[in-house]
Structures are given as structure tokens and as C-alpha cells.
Amino acid sequence: MACGIIGVTARKSHGASSRIAEIVKKGLEKLEYRGYDSVGVAAIYDNKIVVRKGKGKISEVNRRVKLDKVLGWTVVGHTRWATHGAPSDVNAHPHIDCNGRIAVVHNGIIQNYVELKKELIAKGHRFRSETDTEVLAHLIEEYLKEGNEVFQAFKRALRRVKGSYAFGVIVVDEPDKIFFARRDSPLVIGVGEGMNFIASDIPAFLEHTRNVIIVYDGEVGFITSDSIYLEDESGVPIDVKARIRKIDWTPDMAKKEGYPHFMIKEIHEQPRALRDTFRGLDESVEKASELILEARRVYFVAAGTSYHACLVGDYLLNVLAGIPSLSMISSEYKKYRKSIGEGDVVIAVSQSGETIDTLMAIRVFKENGARVVSISNVVDSAIPRESHYTIYTRAGPEIGVAATKTFTTQLLVLSWLSLAVAEKMGKLGKGEAEKLRRELERTPSLVSDIIARYEGVTKKLGEELVNSSNAFYLGRGIGLPIAMEGALKLKEIAYIHAEAYPAGESKHGPIALVEPGFPVIFLVFEDEWKRHMLGNIEEMKARGAYAIGVIPEESDFIEERLDKAIVIPKLEPIVGTIVYSVPLQLIAYYAAVAKGYDPDKPRNLAKTVTVE
Ligand code: M6R
Prior knowledge:
This protein is of the alpha/beta class. 38% of the residues lie in helices and 22% in strands. The chain has 3 domains: 4-247, Glutamine Phosphoribosylpyrophosphate, subunit 1, domain 1; 260-441, Glucose-6-phosphate isomerase like protein, domain 1 (Rossmann fold, 3-Layer(aba) Sandwich); 444-599, Rossmann fold, CATH 3.40.50. It has an 8-stranded antiparallel beta sheet. Helix 18 links the parallel strand 23 (546-552) and strand 24. Helix 8 (270-278) packs parallel to helix 13 (405-424), helix 13 (405-424) runs antiparallel to helix 14 (430-440) and helix 13 runs antiparallel to helix 19.
């Protein structure tokens, strides 16, 4: 899925030689959301490479092997989400060559590693791990033996590798440099004062610098403490100064600030995230809405939570603007590879902007002639870069693996966009669209109120759910994608099997599972489906379901049929999507905490999935 890499190289005047390992360890903690089954560091000191690594979370491994005490001013680190080779001490990165003079950290997959490994073993190389990554260390070793300079050897090795990568490499022969390369896996450079960084994500070095260079696909280079060298795929040097951008994230944004977990901090941050996302939204939806208006057909593509946001956007384009759009899960894009092309617009939603399935899908559709509009939270990430146009959410860094604030800000952007399109098509009068925009502007305060009012209630509900192994989330219309998102949250962090269904469909099979005490969470919006939802509640109650409802106020006839109710102000459905999502996030969070799980790092998951 994903791993996190970091590399730091500093002037010796930057203090004790163990200070850099401490910076690397802290950086790895910021990247732990990308993978956390094993961790390791490698440093050059006294003409040797020292590697410390092991299976387990950073804190556990650090206790055992003291990652942060390694000496040296050039250090690389890695936090792993296993793909090739089970999580183990030996498969943890960094990986070294036969003589321990080269160390490699890698995020991605080397697809042709089996052939390369055979070839290298035939030449006498000794492999220690089962990973694909180790072949790169041996390939570099091989090309160094042929008399190449280190950078040349690194580039020759890269040419042999098929697949995706962000590499960080250190070599004893050039102890002040960290070599790097990127293809289809994220990589950024942090430009510091007498200290430079490479990392999979910006928060890894945010405490030290906000000056960032995004490395693009095919680019390769090296950093020293005071210089950065970068060249493109054809070997042409790049003017790095022109590529530096200052980002407006503050180091505090990547800290827990007193909250026990990032997830709960990020849930509480939603009013701020929504407020920030409004900035410049009118201008950014303007161009995107023009592209949609010119389109022959409109499609949405995304994975996971972002797919649920697409379903809301898709619903709104259909009902508000009368545009018969369609949403697809990005890993299933091949179904449409012949049917989407010239004249079509594809809206790709990805908080990270790096999800490989979504990236692959837009590449194919773009090649076919479609226009791509993306919605992302990470400026200049791969999907925005490959899109014709991007609208950014301004949620700030999201560290918890479960998407929360990035989801509600995606909903805001998609709602704003749909209103602009519907208005331009004359399907919504100016006054009507304006009224809905004013309502959407209330979301920051509505979300604050819901958190203040319902955090205690949702905590109790979450604690109650720990005794269940299954739950249903039922909704209709625009409530369905919100139900799907609620179920995903409960599954991914509390490990409770939860399924979302269109409420009307639940009686066509799923209801057979319901027995006394089975929790069913109903999302009742103030819309044309409200009365129908009451029927669904009755059906489930009749089978003994434990009925929890998120319902609009003044719906006593519904409330009295429920076992537990979260009563929300009467809202336009377009606003309700954002507000209703919040108690569902809280329920899942508190269920995970009550079960003793770490909601920030759910098992088997990683924040950004960069493997197809
Ligand atoms: O970065 P993206 O929005 O492209 O990520 C898509 C999914 O991987 C992501 O939403 C995932 O489902 C999260 N675990 C949801 O909480």
C-alpha cells in the first residue's frame, strides 16, 4: 500500500551527530500513518553504514534498538507497510548491498524484482531479505564495481527497475549526499538552513522548514546539507530555486495539540477546515463549472471515502442540474476505458492526490481525450499535476488514517461546484442557488454545535457498539453515501463489520440478518424520503433491531420509534451531508477507543495507497 521514507543530511555545525537520527525518528513518527508494521534507519558515520531496524511500531522498535541514537549527519529512515515479504526484522528497511556500503529506503513496488534478483544472485550477490527493495542496493553495487560514479550507478540501476518508487539512497563513498528518485510514489524535498530533507510527505520535516520542492515523476537527484541537485528524466538539470514553494501549513497542524489522537483532533478541526476551504472557492469552481458545461458526459472517479464524496457530487449534479453523471470506483476504471474519452469530463477526487488507482484511471481517460478536473487536499500532488484543472480543499494535513475533515471539505467543494453548474444551466434560479450557498456557509458553526452537543452522546453510542460484531447504516437519496461513509469509518477503525444499504433495498435481503439487538443506524434527512425512512425503521424494529437515528428536529413521530436519536437542526440536504457525517465519525472514533484500538493507525491500512 504505502510506506514512508525520509532522509536528512546536515552540516556538522548542526550539533551532535546523534541529533540527525532524532530528527529522522520524529519525521518517521509523522509518516507512521503511511505504514507501521516495521521501521528502520541507516546512517553514515566514520566511513561505515550503521543500520538499526525492526518489526513493530516506531516506539516499540526505538525502545529495542534506539533508532534515535544512531550517529551521523547523513541519515535515512523508513516506516513500512509490507508488500513483498512479511513484516519482520530482516524485511524492515533500510536494505543494504553485500558489503554494507549502500543503504536504500523505498516506497513502492519493483515489479521485475524476481528477474533482477536471479540475475544478481548468479553474479554472486547475497540477499538477506525477501523484499523487492533489496535488489536496488545490489544493482547499485554492481554498477559501482564497473567503475561508475555513485550518481551514475544509481541512475543505471534505476533504468533496470520497473514499477513504482520513491527511493532514498546513501553510499559510504559520498557520505554527505542522499540520492533520490521518484516514479508514481510521492516524494518531496525540504529546503532547510544547512540541512536538507527528502520525505514522502511534508509533515515529516515541517518543524524545520516550510520551503518545499515537489519531486515529479521521472526526476532524480541528490541533496547535501547546502545544495540540491535535480534533473529530469532525460538528464536535463532543473533550476531548483524556481521550483521552491513556501507552504502555508504550520508545524502545529501536524501535532496532536493535546488531543489523544489525530483523528479526534481532525474531527474537531472541521469548522476551521470548512472555513478555510471557502477561501477562493467561487473562482476555483468557476473554471471547473465551465468545463462541466461544455462536457458531453460527466464522470466521477475515486477510492474509499473520496468515492463517497463523489457519490454526493454525482447525486447533486443529477438532481440540481439534471446532468446524468456517473461515479466509478477508481480501481474499476477499466470498465470505462473504451467508453470515456473526447468530450467527456472526469472529476477525480483524492485527498492525498497520490492514490495510484485514481491516478491510473485519469491517465487512461486523459489519453483518450477526456478533460480531468481534480479535487485534492495536497497542492501539486500527482493527481492535480496530471489534471487539466484542480480545486483544492484547504483542510490542512490529515494524519489520521481515517479521512474526516478531508471528506467534509470535499463535500463542500462538490456542493459549491454543483450549485454553480445548476445555476449556469438555468436549473436553479439565482436566488435559489444563492440561498443554498448561504446555508452552506453555516456549516462551520453547525458542525461546531453538533460536536459540542453530541460528543458525549456519540461516545456512549460508540461504547455500546463494541458489543456488536455487525451493524447496518441505512439512508436514501443523498443520505446513502453518508451512510456508506459512516459504515466505512466503523469498519476501518473499530473493526466492526458494518454495511450501508439504500434503506429501500434493505428488505430485499439484508433484513434477514437482523435479530434482536442488531444495531441499525438510520440517516433521516429533511427531504422527500423522510416518511419512507419511517417505514424502514418500523420494518427493522419489528425484527428487534436496536434503532439509532440521526434525524431532523421536529420529527417526533420518528424519534419516538428510535432507541437513540441524534437530533440535528432542519437542514437543506446539501448542508445535511456535511453535518450528518460528523456524529458518524465520532461514533466510530469512540467505538475504536473503547475497544482499545489506535484509531490513527488501523491494522492493515495505510493513509495513501500507492500500490495498484
Ligand atoms: O487520498 P485519497 O482520497 O485518494 O484516498 C482514498 C482512500 O484510500 C481513502 O479515502 C481511504 O478509504 C481512507 N481509509 C478512508 O478513511
